[in-house]
Design goal:
two-stranded parallel sheet, mainly alpha, Rossmann fold, single chain, binds glutamic acid, 3-stranded antiparallel β-sheet, 4 domains
């Protein structure tokens, strides 16, 4: 246990967490678990206008789905709570007062009209936008009826430098920072103030977050200095890019993490895949279980360059995790998807379902295929197949030869004492020879007869699952359908 290592995932509840947020959560979690430290969840809900109902549940649900347990935070509590920023307002107000008293912040009474005019003038003069420090050096006379905001008094000269554990030294010119707002007129803090007050109060040792926050870091470092606090260590994670190397967006499938669950990716796939978005064990290892990732995780092996989110790789990885499941696990996980796509399957017992699923486990990439391509397994569970007689026609076969082939197959199977893969295969191969057909011609017709499909799981195994009675019944139906074939 390393009690000094404390990291946090600090999402804003502004919608469902997407891949980038969850990758940040994961890297924090992996780091905490590797180091034996603590992983905190803190909800940064001070921006009331952007609050989206239900997002806290979605955030926590995403963490739970991926197995990222948190040591302190919502539902858990902890020594440094509350873990919702909206319940900590007085702490930010106190910090703002402390900064004002120390000469590091000031009240600003500029009206929104004045700020509007200032912005318009800056745009017209092609100047960079930013507060013109109108209230910075005024003595405090409170104008009637205006509730001030509190702004940070950014040093006008010098540079702010910090060491990023991934990027090395990062340095910003102070003159380029404007006197940003700390406390809004409604008494709510801005992200910058709340974030550093909490990171300090919650004894956060390492701030691990996305690269988009690098430009906020100098403001944070200045705030720490002004408050006389030791800043945490920083590690800004590389950007996640699409395969076209542009920033990952919806267009690349950058959807909410729960959409991946919906599509039938396994949580263990997602953990493995997301861990490789910026971190690697070596140059080649792709498949790693969570224990192996935790054991080997280190900030040193996080790269600076953008990480490519490749959906094809994700699908390949998921297929590989699916194949590695025991048949029982696979059955349990696939069943909800199967039931959604093939409600008829509910009437069957688990053993039957299991034997049917065993035939497709090799081929499935996402469990959602059971729901979205129900034809893949539907034939196992329905009484009457729906297909057109024409589909029974074997390759280069006539109506008559197809009918004969089906009739003769029926005769053979009716007589066959031993209903096994080997005996059926031997029997039907010899029949094909007798009929002067290629085995593929005969098996093609039979496949349609038993499954209604041109492409299906292996024919004889499928017949075993369907069972003798069902096979004979389907074959009789096929024979009668074959009479409808145009001569
Ligand atoms: N609330 C910020 C976010 O939504 C946190 C950024 C940080 O980790 O400092 O990502």
């Amino acid at each position: 246990m390393n009690n000094n290592i404390r990291v946090r995932y600090a999402p804003s509840p502004t919608g469902h967490p997407h891949v980038g947020n969850i990758r940040t959560a994961l890297f924090n979690w992996l780091f905490a678990r590797h180091e034996g430290g603590k992983f905190l969840v803190r909800i940064e809900d001070t921006d009331q206008a952007r609050y989206v109902e239900g997002s806290v549940e979605a955030i926590l649900g995403g963490l739970r789905w991926l197995g990222m347990d948190w040591d302190e935070g919502p539902e858990k509590g902890g020594d440094y709570g509350p873990y919702f920023q909206s319940q900590r307002l007085e702490k930010y107000q106190a910090a703002a007062e402390k900064l004002i008293a120390g000469g590091h912040a000031y009240r600003c009474y500029c009206s929104s009209e004045r700020l509007e005019e200032m912005r318009a003038a800056q745009t017209a003069a092609k100047q960079p936008p930013g507060y013109d420090r109108h209230c910075r050096d005024k003595c405090e006379i409170t104008p009637e009826g205006i509730t001030p905001v509190v702004r940070f008094r950014v040093p006008l000269k010098g540079r702010t430098v910090f060491n990023d554990l991934i990027r090395g030294e990062v340095s910003f010119e102070n003159a380029l920072l404007d006197d940003f707002i700390l406390l809004k007129s409604d008494g709510f803090p801005t992200y910058h103030l709340a974030n550093i007050v909490d990171d300090h109060d919650m004894r956060i040792s390492h701030v691990i977050r996305g690269e988009e926050w690098v430009s906020s870091a100098p403001r944070h470092v200045l705030l720490y200095q002004a408050l006389g606090y030791e800043p945490p260590l920083y590690a800004h994670l590389p950007m996640i890019l699409g395969t076209d190397r542009s920033k990952l967006s919806k267009r690349h499938g950058a959807v909410s993490i729960m959409d991946y669950e919906e599509q039938g990716y396994l949580p263990e796939t997602m953990v493995n895949f997301l861990a490789l978005l910026g971190w690697s064990l070596d140059d080649k290892t792709e498949i790693m279980d969570v224990k192996q990732i935790i054991d080997n995780f280190s900030i040193e092996r996080i790269s600076k360059t953008g990480a490519i989110f490749n959906v094809e790789k994700l699908d390949w990885m998921n297929g590989s995790y699916i194949r590695a499941l025991t048949l029982d696990e696979f059955t349990d996980r696939a069943r909800p998807f199967l039931e959604a796509g093939v409600p008829e399957s509910r009437a069957f017992d688990r053993d039957y379902i299991k034997s049917a699923l065993a035939l497709v486990q090799e081929r499935v990439k996402k469990l959602g295929e059971f729901r979205d391509q129900p034809e893949m397994t539907r034939f196992f569970f329905i009484e009457n197949l729906e297909y057109e007689p024409i589909e029974l026609l074997g390759k280069k076969m006539t109506a008559a030869s197809t009918r004969t082939a089906l009739e003769r197959s029926l005769e053979r199977l009716e007589k066959l004492g031993d209903f096994t893969v080997e005996s059926m295969e031997a029997d039907l191969r010899s029949l094909a020879e007798e009929l002067e057909l290629k085995p593929g011609q005969l098996f093609g017709s039979l496949r349609v007869a038993f499954t209604g499909l041109i492409v299906s799981p292996p024919l004889f195994q499928t017949m075993i699952v369907l069972g003798r009675e069902q096979c004979l019944k389907r074959l009789r139906e096929a024979v009668s359908k074959s009479w409808k074939l145009p001569e």
